[in-house]
């Protein structure tokens, strides 16, 4: 499930995207999130497409969704945006029972996580400094 929030004030234009109950460990998602935090939108896409981890695909979908919402809802340009905040939080653990020999059962625990990404527009002063 993906939820979107937008803060439309002129001085603080940001898009917040939250994906809930992603079926992967927090630590596996955290090593991908640490690589993209604070990077520009184009650089983030290149990093995520080339990373060999399974966790990069749901995060790539989130970044695409945040950029599309920023463009559609607030009229922001993707080239002028960057990942201002990215975090992974632990969610519920899905528990199942696997049948074993002699009528016994073995618990299977599948961890899930919540991924939050905030896409923010670069300020004019930040853009002037980078040139």
UniProtKB/TrEMBL annotation:
Entries under Gene3D superfamilies matching the protein: Ribosomal protein L22/L17
Compartment list: Plastid, Chloroplast
Residue stretches spanning the membrane: none
This protein's UniProt keywords: Chloroplast, Plastid, Ribonucleoprotein, Ribosomal protein, RNA-binding, rRNA-binding
GO MF annotation terms: rRNA binding; structural constituent of ribosome
Residue stretches in coiled coil: none
Protein purpose: This protein binds specifically to 23S rRNA. The globular domain of the protein is located near the polypeptide exit tunnel on the outside of the subunit, while an extended beta-hairpin is found that lines the wall of the exit tunnel in the center of the 70S ribosome.
Oligomeric form and interacting partners: Part of the 50S ribosomal subunit.
Alphabetized NCBIfam families for the sequence: rplV_bact
Protein name: Large ribosomal subunit protein uL22c
Organism: Orania palindan
The organism's taxonomic lineage, starting at the top: Eukaryota, Viridiplantae, Streptophyta, Embryophyta, Tracheophyta
Protein encoded by which gene: rpl22
